[in-house]
Amino acid sequence: MSEHPFSHETTLLVLARTALAQGVEQLQAAGSPLHPFFLDERGGITFLFDQQGGVDPMTMALQAIRQNAPDILRCALVIDSRIGYHDGKTWDAIVVMACERGQAEGVVLAQRYVPKGWFRALRLEGEAEEIAKARNFIAAALDAPDR
User: Fold this and answer.
1) Is the pLDDT of residue 6 over 60?
2) What whole-number distance in Å separates Cα of residue 64 and Cα of residue 38?
3) Less Cβ crowding at N or C end of the chain, within 10 Å?
């Protein structure tokens, strides 16, 4: 059995969908808002905590990649957000931005949800959808100087 849950053949989309499923599990267990985290191809999860308040999750991810995971090949950043959809409504959504070393673009997936309430469980709305392309934030992290 392999030391890592993902093989080198694992596609970026498989990693992104796995990260999305992990985000759904976190929301179901702890409710919203979801703490941002990233999942790498080795199966490592890095939770990103904002001790100052107001720090962008991508900024935290870039710093964490530089400091803790500079050798990763693939990464999926998971955040809790609100996004507008083609139906004209604004939804709470788990958003996953995934990229791969050496590739110019990655994928962005979103899963709409209705948060837990006093008398209702978390409800997923529709299917996860690819909503955009992601920039290669692994390259951005490794090209940026430490701050």
Assistant:
1) no
2) 9
3) N
Q: Is the pLDDT of residue 76 over 80?
A: yes
Q: Which pairs with CB-CB distance under 8 Å and at least 24 residues apart come from 129-133?
A: 131/83, 131/95, 132/107, 132/108, 133/105, 133/106, 133/107, 133/108
Q: Which amino acid is at 92?
A: D
Do residues 125 and 91 make contact, with C-beta atoms less than 8 angstroms apart? yes
Contact 114, 51 (CB under 8 A): no
Q: List all residues 6 or more positions away from 82 whose beta carbon is below 8 Å from its beta carbon.
A: 90, 91, 92, 93
The pLDDT assigned to 29 comes to 86
Cα–Cα distance, 25 to 78 (Å, whole number): 12
Q: How far apart are CA 122 and CA 92, in angstroms?
A: 11
pLDDT in the model for residue 9: 52
Distance of CA 109 to the CA centre of its chain: 9
Closest CA to 111 of 129, 132, 98: 129
What's the confidence (pLDDT) of residue 10? 64
